User: Fold this.
Amino acid sequence: MPPTSKDSQEHFVARWLNQRALHTHQYPAPGSWVQPQANHPINLASGYPFPDAIPRTALVAALSNVVAMEGDAPFQYSGSQASEGLAHWIAQRMQQSGLMIPDDALLLTQGAIQGLDLICQTVLDSRSLVLVQGPTYMEALEIFHNYTDHVVALSCDRPDQDFTEVLATYLASRKGNSPLSLLYLGTSFQNPTGLVLSAEARRTLVALARQYHFLIVEDGAYDALYFDAQIPPMKTLDIEGQVLYLGTFSKTISPGLRVGWVIGPAPLVEAMARFKKDLGNPLVTALTAKFLHDEDYDTRLDWLRAQYRMRGHLATEALQRFMPEEVCWISPRGGFFIWLRYPDRVDNTRLLETATNLGVSYVPGQYFYPYASHDNPKALRICFSYETPVRITEGIRLLSRALREQIVALP
Amino acid sequence: MPPTSKDSQEHFVARWLNQRALHTHQYPAPGSWVQPQANHPINLASGYPFPDAIPRTALVAALSNVVAMEGDAPFQYSGSQASEGLAHWIAQRMQQSGLMIPDDALLLTQGAIQGLDLICQTVLDSRSLVLVQGPTYMEALEIFHNYTDHVVALSCDRPDQDFTEVLATYLASRKGNSPLSLLYLGTSFQNPTGLVLSAEARRTLVALARQYHFLIVEDGAYDALYFDAQIPPMKTLDIEGQVLYLGTFSKTISPGLRVGWVIGPAPLVEAMARFKKDLGNPLVTALTAKFLHDEDYDTRLDWLRAQYRMRGHLATEALQRFMPEEVCWISPRGGFFIWLRYPDRVDNTRLLETATNLGVSYVPGQYFYPYASHDNPKALRICFSYETPVRITEGIRLLSRALREQIVALP
Assistant:
């Protein structure tokens, strides 16, 4: 093989990349904030289901069963018969939460993330304005930043703020000529705040979307994991087809499967399907469909809700018991997360160092804001979904120690 | 739930779609040309591995084994330890074909198709010109048409034509101001012609890419399935980093897994990785990595080569025995396909009808050309990879009967 000239390669490729003006990612790779340590730090950082929440034996059995029934089909391009009914099965279940979904309005995706990426590919260009909650889901930000520099976060994490008022004020006074394309929302048990938008807020948001002509993307990743009462998706209030809904099995079966769905107006879903070049992921959809066919998903959801409710309550109790007075949070009503806000005088870098040294990890608040944001919020996300109950309590005790040290040390 | 106003939905969404000026697909859905019949028509249409080529028992065992070793890890976001070495393992194997690949130059993808899609997302815009062989792989055309209207096929299927001369002439005389972005090539056992580009042609193509400043995408999907001698990828001739290489396990393990890879200059691969929003597909990469760890892949490839060589030779023998004189083809040296060209007086529609009625399916030639092409080529693709040897021979006999009827019936 001829020798490779690295310089000329880079020169040549730079020409192509410049055309696209790709945005430089300023963030570390996902997971790099979880500092691995010899003594297994307590992981309050990763938004993972706890290990036994994943039905691994049943999933292996599902693959074995679908192969026994259908031979090579699940491994071919054409895929399994089992997976043909999966989209319809999901649509039927969504009806239980009040959504009537025509068959051409639901597209299977690789987790909610691919759904969001396909929405962006279909409706955004480099001039588009995207609005998000501040703070919001970090992977969503990474996707938006692939398509546009215009990502604006509107504050949603302060008790004295009503998100719909913040949004209405922003929309009424907005300057600049970026076309407003979409508002991305976690409506129930939002990542990272755990917040739930009220029914009134949801109605106001849909009305604002109609008035100002933008799409709303509702991320329903945690909808099924309510602690007490089911909350119907905001999509149920949608008359004009302005709300797109993202669903996923990542939190209720397994993140590694990468099976989710997007619901929206048929023409938009059809356009998204054209950009979806994974040939339907025959194997994982077959496996998922067979699992759902063989197992009792409702019993499973009831059990998961009880598990996460117990963890969420334990976390809240530990916060109340250990945290200094100046730290505040809102008790979760579902999902995986609690958002802690602490006084301005705490140094974020030193807090992370102290917590890491004590053996507990979390995700610093800044990761949940757009890149262009100059905020370095005095906040962090803890996740109560992954660790054992004992370690959740201990992790929060250690974190409170780190916070207390910072709060006391500084004037 | 309020009633849905379908009209206003469509109106609203149309505004978004118009901004993107999405191209209308004029083609039937994939697979719709395979006419299902009660008596199981002989399938010379689908480019699938034959059923027993897929190691389904070993794949089920691989999943079971990786779960036994790593518990929930392959089902989580972070993925399996088994899959961490997969990219490196592939890079090492590619070295056997003469390619030295730094770690940052290889990206795992969902089959070759996602690799091609990521290349397009990274380097194309709506003004870009893409050149392809005429005929070429139909899924690649679908991807290009998602990004640009400027897709030009340069003829490669006639014995009196040298593709490099056709390309050189086109480049020298090209008018219009679409920036030439990339040339997409099947270099060995091309889909749909089965053709292999000579070493001289490969050198000329790389020189033309340097002279005219375009990227070459080399689709190596069938490289491992040579009948007699291994042919090094064109990428081995690449000094300037202008050749991107697409690889896949779809033909050698299973299409349904959706595991492939792309090799290219590190800055371009890094840019592509940013658009890849599938979180690395933890489960399928774990399954694939464990399979490759537990099984002897070289022995498997030897066996597959013998199987496809036998099928390819049988198909050639049947063509020689049954086809009318006016039909021509080139004997395959690897891969899955043979491209048949037949006289102008054969009516394509009636040929397909006759063949379907006789119980044999194939893919008409027109599907392998860009949408804008007005050619309705007197050609078709047959695939010898999927059916049993007996049915391959019988399928070709029936197809020759259909062709003979058309040739004799028409003056």
Observations:
- The longest helix of chain B spans residues 297-322.
- Chain B touches chain A through 89 residues (CB under 8 Å).
- Confidence is low (pLDDT under 50) at residues 1-38 of chain B.
